[in-house]
Automatic annotation (TrEMBL):
Membrane topology per record: Multi-pass membrane protein
Any one Gene Ontology cellular component term annotated for this protein: plasma membrane
InterPro entries in the record: Eqnu_transpt
Keywords: Membrane, Transmembrane, Transmembrane helix, Transport
Biological source species: Malassezia yamatoensis
GO MF term set: nicotinamide riboside transmembrane transporter activity; nucleobase transmembrane transporter activity
Protein name as catalogued: Nucleoside transporter
Phylogenetic lineage: Eukaryota, Fungi, Dikarya, Basidiomycota, Ustilaginomycotina
Length: 308
């Protein structure tokens, strides 16, 4: 949620800066050098605000680490060791990683496809979509404003999507194969965005293109589905390895036996320590495949741009 809020804030700063620049220079015919300078200034503002937010986050973490209850949690995590089942042979760390990966492969495939699609079309392809020709051009049909606006819409959609699974169980995906199906359907975004008013390098306009409001709705839907499915995967994927994770009796008993000075944390007192450790490893694996999805999606964007 914090990352999504940061994205909304940064895109809003970029949009407002672009809007002001266009309003100030609306009467002038700006050269490409001037436009490039304005874009560089807008990007610099976004980067500076992002750095400031990162510094503030680091300060908050440093302050939290000094709280006694948090310090004791960290100490317990560092001292805890994963237990091996008495009925199974010892596994090396690599074998253990591969075993867990096999168990959660639908969730891994899902998080990989989520960001392959998202990075495959946004922002490389979506930034090339231009407003459909209007009889009376306005500030909202300016290319720079239109591109900045769609970035805001994407980040707002991502913020909404990340929040939905935590508000109601209806938007939370609980089965791995369902997650694979839903994330696989998101590949339809590629032809849908190609059907918008994408202007290629040679500048030739399309004879038919989807209206602007449809394009912005697709961008919003891309953000919502990205945030919603990713949050569902990171919530449900690791819990898949925790038996009877819907019940709270065991964790409540473990919590009652804990040091009274340490606040109750359901993640710290799970039913089985080995299952808790496996769930943590699953989260790390999902994060790894998320990065792989980002990398593959960046590569896919070149192939998508070649379709224009």
């Amino acid at each position: 949620m914090g990352q999504a809020l940061q994205g909304v804030f940064g895109s809003m700063v970029n949009f407002i800066g672009t809007l002001i620049a266009v309003l100030l220079d609306q009467s002038d015919s700006r050269s490409d050098i001037t436009r490039a300078r304005e874009n560089a200034i807008s990007a610099m503002i976004v980067f500076i605000t992002t750095i400031l937010l990162q510094i503030a986050t680091r300060v908050c973490f440093a302050r939290a680490a000094q709280i006694s209850s948090v310090a004791k949690h960290v100490k317990n995590w560092e001292l805890s060791e994963p237990t091996q089942s008495s009925t199974s042979d010892y596994e090396s760390p690599l074998q253990h990683l591969l075993t867990i990966q096999k168990k959660i492969w639908p969730w891994i495939l899902s998080v990989f496809m989520i960001f392959v699609v998202t990075l495959g079309v946004y922002p490389a392809l979506t930034a090339k979509v231009r407003p459909v020709s209007h009889a009376s051009p306005s500030i909202w049909t300016d290319v720079n404003v239109f591109v900045a606006l769609h970035i805001v819409v994407m980040n707002i959609g991502d913020l909404i999507g990340r929040r939905l699974p935590t508000l109601t169980a209806f938007f939370r995906i609980r089965r791995g194969l369902v997650a694979v199906l839903i994330t696989g359907l998101r590949f339809l975004f590629i032809p849908l965005f190609l059907a918008c008013n994408v202007i290629p390098v040679n500048g030739q306009s399309k004879s038919f293109a989807l209206p602007d409001f449809v394009f912005l709705f697709l961008v919003l839907l891309l953000g919502v589905t990205t945030g919603c499915t990713a949050t569902s995967v990171f919530l449900s994927g690791p819990q898949f390895l925790v038996p009877n994770h819907d019940g709270a009796c065991a964790s409540e008993v473990r919590a009652s036996q804990a040091d009274d000075d340490v606040e109750h944390d359901p993640l710290l007192y799970q039913e089985e320590e080995s299952s808790t450790h496996d769930a943590g490893v699953a989260s790390l694996l999902l994060s790894f495949w998320l990065v792989m999805g980002l990398t593959a999606g960046s590569g896919l964007s070149f192939a998508v741009l070649a379709m224009i």
